[in-house]
Specification:
By secondary structure, this protein is an all-beta fold. It contains no helices and two strands. Strands 1-2 form a two-stranded antiparallel ribbon. The mean pLDDT is 79.
């Protein structure tokens, strides 16, 4: 996946809108609030 015009988040930055496509069907949109924690467990690839 190509990324353009991206930058790392810094202290005080808002987490950007993020919507993930689920494996089975549908999608998951993360809420945009003041504080967001995102944990990703990739398991065994």
């Amino acid at each position: 996946m190509a990324q353009t015009d991206t930058r790392k988040l810094d202290t005080g930055d808002r987490f950007p809108h993020l919507e993930l496509e689920l494996v089975g069907d549908g999608s998951l949109a993360l809420p945009t609030s003041e504080r967001t924690v995102l944990l990703i467990y990739r398991g065994k690839w």
